[in-house]
Predict the structure of HTH gntR-type domain-containing protein.
Amino acid sequence: MVKQLNFVGSARMPRRGTAMKLDKPEASAPPRLEPLHIPKSCDVLANHLRQKILDGSFPDGSLLPGERDLVDQTGLSRGSVREALRILEAEGLVSTRPGRYGGSRATRPSGTTVARQIALFARGSHLPLASIIEAREAVEPPIAELAALHRSDADLAELREIDRRLQQAHDNVPAYLEENVKWHCRLAAASRNPLLEAFMHSLANLIHEASTLHNFATDEVRSLVLQAHTRILDAVEKQDAAAARRRMTRHVQAYSAQLRNLIKQQDQGLI
């Protein structure tokens, strides 16, 4: 006698002669694709030419292929080629001269380019004067420290000459402010750090504008600035980096405090 097995939990076996019914799997949703972002052809060409300029494949001042040649070489439309060149020109990497003997020339970025872009950013963003002052307080003491470490005799001589012109221009405020900007920019050049130099060029010019607008360069302020310059230059000459940084810190903090106080008084209508 055969004992019947009982499969617990299993499905009942179908009768002989009947087809087994299988459950159909549930249909899964097709995978969702992410949006594709296809760059414009002008951006692709601008990126390619930008890399060629920055890596030196197109040396500074060299002519780029003309529009017709770029169309033939890349297979892009003339409109895309022109737009790519306009993008690079806006970035300061290409200078274009129209006419029969014109064309587009590669232009390597310079400190002047960086300084101009920083100044445009500050003006376009309507940065408050307080932000500009804070940036100067953060940047210029390290510049003085580096200048003391890396300055040459020529740097020191030129700084002394600018300081002499500053003293002569003490009673001529516009000339004094111009020479003051030159002094700070020349000190930044002595730091041998091109990025700090470019940054200082922008800050010095922005502070100069603020000093002019707020009639800040009083006789007392001009005298205090000259005294501070003398102390800073003495430290730079002795290549005492710590003293140069410390004295520049005192100088910019005192200058900033006076400028903030003057602006506050003007806002309150006290002067």
Remarks:
- The domain at 41-106 is CATH 1.10.10.10 (Arc Repressor Mutant, subunit A).
- The radius of gyration is 34 Å.
